[in-house]
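User: Please fill in residues for this 429-position structure.
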């Protein structure tokens, strides 16, 4: 074993970074044996230097992250600051000064992954980011390496624990959205500003990363259709139950039937209780991968938290350190397939539509005609009447999202349709 240590600069020492530092210390001997050389924490960049950080030598702490990555003797930079800047500049500077990079930064990777991969490649360095998607769950490496000989057709997952916690609460207790969100906040599962989670931004970043790797095609954040889950109601869960379904916020990356294009989207959807994703409870994450040869695979586990996320970071750190000792690099960006990324209108799926209508003869026929005119075939219809008003629940066969949008627009114009109470996609069948 080499005795000269590999030097690691830790950028950020918060929820994830502090756990990375702790495991580097407590598992030092095992890490050295697995890598073939000891790893040494050479510096820790933070914003508030005076804060007491258990287990961290205060002499290593600095607020000058740029100077740390420019030192020239750093082998690996671990970026766990988060956000776009200064993380992006620091990572680029790290490559320029000879370091490889491990990051947990989904927002940055989803936005600038291609440029960062190019910078890593130009300097012959590694960029690894297993922790950026679904925390501890091994997903990037299985897609990038284990499934490199297969053809992935679909990635369907629960990749945000906060939203899964909220939806699971609504499902199990009958609570409304706000009540479930309040509980998630009180228990620390939701941040004070939960927008990134509940509006699907966090899941969309992960969907862009997963789709890019799964389909060997660049998928930008803007290519991902995104709908949050703030409009999901207790009534939607009652409807879902009547259909033998529950509701999850899903990230779905799909190859088209003819294989020439892909789509990526995030939205709430009904899934059958028999689907493995339906039983993912609390703040857990799970990702279902479908490929030609392997068939169906499911990856399940804690998608966030300091220690689980640090596990993924450390796994990358070991891989990157091994590569350095071998004078090699791991897989970089693979975008050779260059498939068309299609808009949401091209997605084909089933829909559950709940309409408030006038309770009088002929309404059902009128509504059915609008569906037929837009090429959307109806699977089932359920009508409940009360005091001159009625609710009509229509479940469709598979149809283009654009056709469904056209149907809903036309339905809204009917005098007999008082309102569209909810539209929910039905997945996983
Ligand atoms: N938390 C999770 O469960 C989780 C899961 C998966 C991925 N991630 C990703 O991991 C990354 C880190 O998340 P986190 O939860 O650990 O964040 P965090 O607790 O807010 O920690 C951020 C750290 O970065 C430091 N920092 C902020 N701005 C800085 C700057 N300009 N220069 C130097 N240091 C700076 C902070 O310093 P101070 O300590 O002085 O404030 C803090 O130590 C993010 O990209 C996040 O998306 C997190």
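Assistant: Residues filled in for all 429 positions:
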């Amino acid at each position: 074993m080499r005795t000269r240590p590999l030097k690691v600069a830790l950028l950020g020492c918060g929820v994830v970074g502090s756990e990375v530092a702790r495991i580097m210390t407590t598992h030092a001997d095992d890490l050295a044996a697995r890598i073939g050389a000891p790893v040494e924490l050479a510096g820790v960049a933070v914003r508030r230097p005076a804060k007491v950080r258990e287990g961290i030598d205060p002499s290593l702490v600095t607020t000058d992250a740029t100077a740390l990555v420019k030192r020239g003797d750093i082998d690996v930079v671990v970026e766990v600051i988060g956000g776009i800047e200064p993380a992006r500049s620091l990572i680029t500077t790290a490559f320029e000064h000879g370091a490889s990079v491990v990051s947990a930064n989904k927002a940055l990777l989803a936005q600038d992954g291609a440029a960062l991969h190019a910078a890593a490649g130009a300097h012959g360095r590694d960029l690894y980011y297993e922790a950026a998607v679904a925390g501890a769950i091994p997903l990037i490496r299985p897609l990038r390496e284990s499934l490199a000989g297969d053809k992935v057709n679909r990635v369907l997952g629960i990749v945000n624990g906060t939203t899964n916690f909220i939806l699971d609460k609504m499902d199990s207790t009958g609570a409304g959205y706000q009540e479930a969100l309040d509980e998630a906040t009180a228990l620390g599962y939701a941040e004070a500003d939960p927008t990134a989670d509940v509006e699907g931004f966090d899941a969309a970043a992960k969907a862009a990363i997963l789709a890019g790797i799964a389909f060997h095609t660049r998928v930008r954040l803007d290519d991902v259709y995104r709908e949050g889950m703030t409009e999901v109601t207790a009534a939607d869960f009652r409807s879902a139950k009547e259909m033998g379904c529950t509701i999850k916020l899903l990230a779905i990356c799909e190859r088209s039937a003819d294989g020439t294009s892909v789509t990526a989207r995030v939205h709430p959807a009904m899934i059958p209780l028999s689907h493995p994703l339906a039983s993912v409870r609390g703040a857990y994450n799970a990702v279902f991968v479908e490929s030609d040869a392997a068939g169906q695979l499911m990856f399940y586990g804690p998608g966030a938290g300091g220690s689980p996320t640090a596990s993924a970071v450390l796994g990358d750190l070991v891989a990157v350190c091994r590569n350095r000792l071998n004078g090699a690099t791991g897989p970089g960006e693979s975008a050779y397939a260059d498939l068309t990324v299609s808009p949401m209108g091209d997605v084909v799926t089933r829909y559950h539509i709940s309409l408030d209508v006038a309770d009088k003869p002929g309404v059902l026929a009128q509504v059915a005609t609008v569906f037929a005119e837009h090429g959307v075939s109806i699977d089932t219809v359920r009508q409940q009447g009360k005091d001159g008003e009625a609710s009509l629940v229509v479940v469709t066969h598979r149809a283009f999202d654009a056709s469904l949008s056209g149907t809903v627009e036309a339905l809204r114009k009917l005098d007999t349709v008082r309102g569209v109470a909810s539209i929910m996609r039905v997945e996983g069948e």
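For context: The chain has 14 helices and 18 strands.
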